[in-house]
Amino acid sequence: MAMTPYEKVMAARDSKKLTAVDYIAHIFGESFVELHGDRRFSDDHAIVGGIGMLYDMPITVIGIEKGRNTKERMDRNFGQAHPEGYRKALRLMKQAEKFRRPVLCLVDTSGAYPGIGAEERGQGLAIAENLMEMMTLKTPVLSILIGEGGSGGALALAVADEVWMFENSVYSVISPEGCASILWKDSSKAPQAAAALKMTAQDLFELQVIERIIRQPKAEDAAMFESLKLLVARTFEKNLALTTEELLDNRYNRFRKIGTKHLDK
Amino acid sequence: MDLFSFVKPKNELESSPDKVNKPFIPEEMWVKCPKCNALLLTTDMEENLHVCTHCDHHFRLSAKQRLELLADRSSFVEHDADLTSSNILDFPGYDKKLEKARQNANESVTCGECTMGGIKTVICVMDPDFMMGSMGTVTGEKITRAFEYATAHALPIVVCTVSGGARMQEGILSLMQMAKTSGAVKRHSDAGLLYITILTDPTTGGVTASFAMEGDIILAEPNTLVAFAGPRVIEQTMRQKLPKDFQTSEFVLQKGFIDAVVPRSALKSTVVKLLKMHGCGGER
Q1: What is the ipTM of this complex?
Q2: CATH architecture designation of domain A5-251
Q3: Domain limits at B110?
Q4: Do B188 and B239 form a contact (C-beta atoms < 8 A)?
Q5: How far is A158 from chain B, CA to nearest CA, in Å?
């Protein structure tokens, strides 16, 4: 039976599902070298990044990591990045640009951290800078929503040539609970909000906000990971063959046209 | 301090209306300052650029009022006035909300070109009277077109922000406006053109995390809320008590995220000075 939108939200948040570090291990194996820190303030553990080999292609990979058990989740701040996390991501992207390495982003967050320190250190600016800089990053960028895509905190790693979503992932401007409590003063109406927000992979594909829905690989299913790797590699190869101007025009126009077909009704 | 001593007796008089023989004045001629509770004569408040004559509280301005404040007289030409928000996701209750919003303002942002101190510039002014300036698809589209126009015509752009954040009734399409506008800002910036942001109360959420923070020069009015996550969100979700004056423009100035806090009375002259010093209007 088909899952309801809210059931998909729950699946996307399922603590037993694979996280960014799992995918990095499966895709890049022993080749992965983790790189830390934003060179400004600190090393945000909610963001994991580094370089790994995809077949014969070096790739910069950046993920938002929620953690797989309580201890890890505390350390990763439940996948809610601070400004320094987004700045770490941007640093690694700029490094990738310098060496013309493609960038793979794995997005899984309920949102950017809403706290005092995050605000004091410019959470809004950190996200805004990523949006601007990613739009003109002179190397291919691919973002995959592997679980939860929570608002600006997710978008800050999802300004890409293509955006893909796992079949049971969600991507939204606000959590369904937040939406229900603001609009209807009742967070228990989250299931209705989840449906109204159109936040499932299938909704976003229909709205032409994403390019692909990907079947979710299971840990033990090596063949599925292999086909995912192949798909990612082919996409990067295709975009590496473009001139920088074509690459950036395509990226700009990708976002430029979203939602515009509704404007002239 | 002269000004203060001048207004004080009047306010004392207003706050104790029973004690004095004052002429009958209808209620709509008074406005209460939400910050200091002083009763102000509407005409005085308006003459003072909608700033409280008692405590300097800056009242929110509609897009129309702000354009009157900033643009040279009758220089403003509106662009894309025909773009209007619609219920693109069939979100329950959104049609009614839009209908209600349209009684207050045309759209969440008004865009066009004008002169300021004789210098031609593109200008976008968000409107608190339209769903608190929340960013819908049309908001993002109008701002994007304004930046594209400014880039194509090698013009500077001034954007006055006021926003409660993303417009959740437009779901993911609202979120995508952050990327879209940021892309247009970047192209304008890469063309070597000047972008001045004026943050006004409140500037929050998706607008803060996109074009509001992307200006070459970021000015803010006094005591403006400037936040990504608003104070209520932080208090509720994190159960953290907030420091005093947290997220005011003075606070973010001190933290290093904006260039200057400028009172409304000096806003236009400051922007004109900056435009001139960037060679805008051919005075290179």
Answers
A1: 0.97
A2: Alpha-Beta Complex (3.90)
A3: 60-282
A4: no
A5: 9
